[in-house]
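Deliverable D4.2, example record:
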Amino acid sequence: MAGIEKVCELSGDYPGHLMYGMKRNHIQVVPKYRKLFRGHKATLYIFKGELQVSDGLCYWKANLKSINANPTEADWDSHNADRVVRYENGVKCVYSVFYENIEQYKAELRKRGQRLVQEFEYVLDVPSIPGQVDGLYSNYTRDISTVIRRLSRLVGHRNLTIKYKDGDMGDFCDSLYKARGGE
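Output generated by the structure prediction step:
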């Protein structure tokens, strides 16, 4: 079964696993069709996603529930505490800890060789090029500055408007689709 993440959103072509490299920090369009976007007015809507922890190879959701200056017994019972591993005299000790603020949490991550990264979801709205997705080309990234640079090159620097939005990207796309007369 083919995954929808491998299909070109403009033409419907199926390049297969090669699409993962084509759409990284870009939109899900085969490169040979990208020249069609040149000169068209576009709006880039950017939504903040979740905070993630990175160790350089993998990403996973940050445990922000462990940031609690005054944990109650219920907090300890709910296993919201962060697990910290320390070696004392060659013996491995595992502790459950709560942090008073996000700076303490970041300091602990630095000790582990990890860091917090922000994930972003974005929608490139190009109504003049509807493609297979009604002109709403979406993706997600952890490197939003690269996305902005690549998409402004795609449509032209003067043709791209950037808007930061709060809320859910899916609901926003649904409202835009309905405003255009979709079902």
